[in-house]
Amino acid sequence: MTALSLLLLAVSAASVLTESSVYFREQFEDADAWKSRWVESKHKTDYGQFVLTAGKFYGDAEKDKGLQTSQDARFYALSARFDDFNNQGQPLVIQFTVKHEQSIDCGGGYIKLFPSGLNQEEMHGDSVYNIMFGPDICGPGTKKVHVIFNYKGKNHLINKDIRCKDDEYTHLYTLIVNPDNTYEVKIDNKKVESGNLEDDWDFLPPKKIKDPEAKKPEDWDDREKIPDPDDKKPEDWDKPENIPDPDAKKPDDWDEEMDGEWEPPMVTNPDYKGEWKPSEISNPAYKGKWIHPEIDNPEYTADSEIYKYDSIGVIGLDLWQVKSGTIFDNFLITNDPNLAEEVGNDTWGKTKDAEKKMKESQEEDERKKREEEDSKRRDEEEEDEEEEGEEQQEEEEEEEEDDEGSDSKLKDEL
């Protein structure tokens, strides 16, 4: 085989490896047909219901339609199946949009990726999943992006704190897992976190451990400062912390038989100096901080395939919400980060500005309406006050007339 043939073969193989694949995409553009693709779990009988809507404000009434949680204080469990695949040797990209238009106070906005063996009608919170990814909010203390991987049967949370968006607008969330065990998290097509899977999760035991045989020598002095042995406490140092108030006088009406012996109240002693401690000097025997020697951890074994899942076949919304109203849309699972970015710009990117404009317009209309209502209420209150004033004046005039009539009648009688 010639060198040219080998080169062409290598280029062909590379093109196969980098070929874009879309494993799942859902934009809810065919009305209620989504109900035939998504399966509601029957594990519980009181799961909350999803409805298809673009919400109260949007950039495009049709393109922005997604699945919205519709009932408060409910668990939700819905999933969709796609052709099973594995991500060996290629990137895994998970992307979707989340819109908390209800000003969420506590609830999930994440998705779960399951192996294809999942029984969708029995999906619940303890169902084994591969990856959990997306925003989670609960009060002011929890506003994070979850990135949880299942590795050898155990769920591992990321060791970093990735803050999610907590406003009412639609936001695009993207997770990229690469075959070199690196990852990247993007929000609105901008990188917010990245790194190495082994470094940012506790998948593997540490490479190094403290040498169990090593011990700090008994004569090792790690005190940087020591009390000055030549420093002595002054003779006049010890003074009481509180003393009787020298300006206090026994009240004139104090009765010792009734009140007991009078004692002046206590006040802080201005001469009190606190507990005496000798000054410190540099320790001449100081050897520095003792560092425990480390050795290779015999339990550590490198794994170049932490990123890999043998079976990926179901995407699910398995979450709890106190206040409903979150809209999920624009789901995408692919092996091409560039494609995901393009899709994000073509969906979320094209409607986000119009969505914001519509919401701001609604808020302005509401503000004007409130001002009109406040003005109308003030006018009505002023009218009521004027009417009350007129009625009161009429009553006073009637009383005056009655008084005049009584006086006149009395005079006539006299």
UniProtKB/TrEMBL annotation:
Please note every region of biased composition (Acidic residues). Answer: 253-262, 380-405
The keyword GTP-binding appears for this protein: no
GO CC, alphabetical: cell surface; cortical granule; cytosol; endoplasmic reticulum membrane; sarcoplasmic reticulum lumen
Q: What is its main location?
A: other
KW Secreted (keyword) present? yes
Going by the UniProt record, its keywords in alphabetical order are: Acetylation, Calcium, Chaperone, Cytoplasm, Cytoplasmic vesicle, Disulfide bond, Endoplasmic reticulum, Extracellular matrix, Lectin, Metal-binding, Repeat, Sarcoplasmic reticulum, Secreted, Signal, Zinc
Annotated InterPro entries: Calret/calnex, Calret/calnex_CS, Calreticulin, Calreticulin/calnexin_P_dom_sf, ConA-like_dom_sf
Q: Which GO terms describe its molecular function?
A: calcium ion binding; carbohydrate binding; unfolded protein binding
Q: Where in the cell is it found?
A: Cell surface; Cytoplasm, Cytosol; Cytoplasmic vesicle, Secretory vesicle, Cortical granule; Endoplasmic reticulum lumen
| Compositional bias per record (Basic and acidic residues), positions renumbered to this chain | 208-252, 349-379
Protein name (record): Calreticulin
- Which organism encodes this protein? Sparus aurata (Gilthead sea bream)
